[in-house]
Specification:
Largest sheet: 3 strands, parallel
Shape: elongated
Order of helices and strands: HEHEHEEEHE
Radius of gyration: 33 Å
Low-confidence stretches: none
Helix content: 10-25%
Strand order of the largest sheet: 1-3-5
Structural class: alpha/beta
Amino acid sequence: MELSNLQPAVGSNKKKRRIGRGPGSGKGGTSTRGHKGAKSRSGYSQKVGFEGGQMPLQRRVPKFGFKNINRVEYKAVNVSTLEELANAKNLEKITVADLMAAGLVRKNQLVKVLANGTLTKKLDVEANAFSKKAEEVIAAAGGTTAKV
């Protein structure tokens, strides 16, 4: 095989049918568009969602609710998870960077510490937000909380 004799596989390339080139083409006259109607005219384009005059789906279905553009989404991390991480890595202070390194949160996620589980170790925790109960649990174990 050489560059000079490369060919596509048999049947993979089809010739484009030339439409509207007179009666000899076998597709003359209406050029496969049928007779009359909007679709047969040049410049025809159908609106998105048009259903032939029937009420389109996006207008038939009722709308409700709204998206709050000011919503702040946090990645929830439980106190029990913090204790497991502290025991595994022998940490006394846990920051968002430690949680990222452990694969618990991604780079641009905000972290909120929740109070699910128990805490037996004194931990200094830095996060974007804390639930009231989580702050109490951390303080009861002798640790501190700091918002970043």
